[in-house]
Amino acid sequence: MVFPVVFLKLADWVLYQLLANSCYRAARKVRNYGFFLRNQTPRSSSQQQAASLFPTASHCDVGNNIRSSQTLVCDIHGVLLRAETFFPYFMLVAFEAGGILRAFLLLLSCSFLWILDYELKLRVMIFISFCGLRKKDIESVGRAVLPKFYLENLNLQAYEVWSKTSSRVVFTSIPRVMVEGFLKEYMAVDDVAGTELHTVGNRFTGLLSSSGLLVKHKALKAYFGDKKPDVGLGSSSLHDHHFISLCKEAYVVHKEDGRNNQSCLMPRDKYPKPLIFHDGRLAFLPTPFATLCMFLWLPFGIVLAIFRILVGICLPYRLAIFWGSLSGVQLTFQGCFPSSNLEQKKGVLYVCTHRTLLDPVFLSTALCKPLTAVTYSLSKMSEIIAPIKTVRLTRDRKQDGETMQKLLSEGDLVVCPEGTTCREPYLLRFSSLFAELADEIVPVAMNAHVSMFYGTTASGLKWLDPVFFLMNPRPSYHVQILGKVPPEFTCAGGRSSFEVANYIQRKLADALGFECTTFTRRDKYLMLAGNEGIVRENKRN
């Protein structure tokens, strides 16, 4: 049984570590703080002297060709990442893998974490974030959620040194399961040595393994033996100085540089690998203050989302736009309304980029006219609350073509040929089926912005996608209607359906400033969720 073992170990750990050690450490910290106030100038100078033992990372000669054959060692915390604390990443694990109650418990722990030393603080965050969670859930967060936040917080100066070496090994006291997926997938690391966690069966207990918290300089000696690594990158802490002193060359990344220096910010175009897919609900880095703001907003956000849904369902288009804007929803419209050809017996086919499940709804609202939307997989709840008609496709090309032809004969139709949503400025490969069905094709460039919650998910509950989007304080939608596709670029003009699909994809990408890719719906779900993204009837409940 997992839980009796966990609670016995936890009781022993609390009695010894928390009640005994932490009280002593807190008293010592208060005493040292008083000593620090009395001796501020000498202590500051000694810290500066310790920090000056090694040059900064900006002084490393990255143009030296010898670097291409050298081995580099460093930590991800405080070196590769600009963040001063790893709390936000534990919060992401707690929220995305454990749920909102676990995240709230981790937030409450901030009230006493400040009195604990680094090791005990890390043990507490690990226990709260990991206790009882399944291995596959943590691995999913490490693969699909954390990389986005790691990339946004990379230290450019440290990465420039990192990228010039041929072999890289990371030593960190952070749990290995939290960083290994990112480091191997995006940073091309050769090996990761991190703190190992105790498991029972397929679940984490929240405790450390028998090896305990990883000590970097000891792990480096055990890994390399008598051989010295070529380059070491460390933070300005004395512990890291001991670690990088075991290398032939050593450089320091200062906290002040990473926090204030604009030259340390990593621009998107310099990412080691493009970030196209990621998952998770949180759209912000959950620092303690930001997380507190989220929890304070949550009750208002739920009520506001319900109000916005009712406005969209019950009110006419003009009133829905008015009350939606009063509630904080920003809808911007660009382009002209397409003119209908009276000679055509078919409706207009709107081809949209796919940002959330609400794309057809906002297009219908912007045009102030009812539309029909087709989708590959949609939960029953999303169908119920949708203010427009939705029709499911079956992935059978012939049957889906007949269904869409029938819908076009009844009126205007909206299709998202990417087949799935993408949060980043990329367009997935367009299915060419729509190009065979109509000659009047109107491309629509749509984009959505959120500040708190993402309105899409690959592994979560999809019926909550519209709710999470509308829970944002000021969600925004941009709808840009491009002109009708010229006849010479349609199938009727002699083009193949693939040429038409690629042409429209490029036009939409240019309008939004996005990049085109050849990734598909299947690629996204296999990367993020380990499935093909199909909503099964027998799993809805």
TrEMBL record:
- Coiled coil segments of this chain: none
For this protein, the record's Pfam families field holds:
Acyltransferase, HAD_RAM2_N
Membrane topology is: Multi-pass membrane protein
Q: Which GO terms describe its biological process?
A: cutin biosynthetic process; phospholipid biosynthetic process
The secretion signal range is 1-20
Indicate where this protein resides in the cell. Membrane
Q: Which residues cross the membrane?
A: 89-116, 289-311
GO terms (molecular function) for this protein are: glycerol-3-phosphate 2-O-acyltransferase activity; phosphatase activity
Q: What cellular-component terms does GO give this entry?
A: membrane
- Which family is this protein grouped under? Belongs to the GPAT/DAPAT family.
UniProt name for this protein: Phospholipid/glycerol acyltransferase domain-containing protein
* Native source species: Gossypium tomentosum (Hawaiian cotton)
